[in-house]
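Re-run requested by the PI after the first attempt was lost when the workstation crashed. Everything re-entered from the original request form. Ligand of interest: H2B.
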Amino acid sequence: MQPLNKQTCEACQANAPKVSDEELAELIKMIPEWRAIVVDNIMQLQREFKFKNFKQAMVFTNQLAELAESEGHHPGILTEWGKVTVTWWSHSIKGLHRNDFIMAAKTDELINQA
Ligand SMILES: C[C@H](O)[C@H](O)[C@H]1CNC2=NC(N)=NC(=O)C2=N1
């Protein structure tokens, strides 16, 4: 299997399967800086990224927006002074799809390239 950051998102329909508990346990090991949280009964992946000012946080936010558009999968983004909180989940299935883990790995890659 290719590393998550080299995989691409597949179209996610409302009837697509959520990741199973077993898959979640395996996939989360590949993105150790992310935590699984539950908001309004929806499982999500979240990570905070720290920056030295607002401008740098905004640069990252815009890079992430480009990545999201290129993959057709979009995160929740909270941009603050020195911090960006990124949250991935699949709206269409109200939970976590493999796409979310791929996107979390690609988000990590953006930072590693910076
Ligand atoms: C039509 C379009 O591809 C869909 O609405 C996509 C867009 N981006 C998306 N992003 C996320 N995170 N979840 C979705 O279900 C989703 N759906």
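Saved to the shared folder this time. Strands lie at 35-39, 42-50, 76-80, 83-88.
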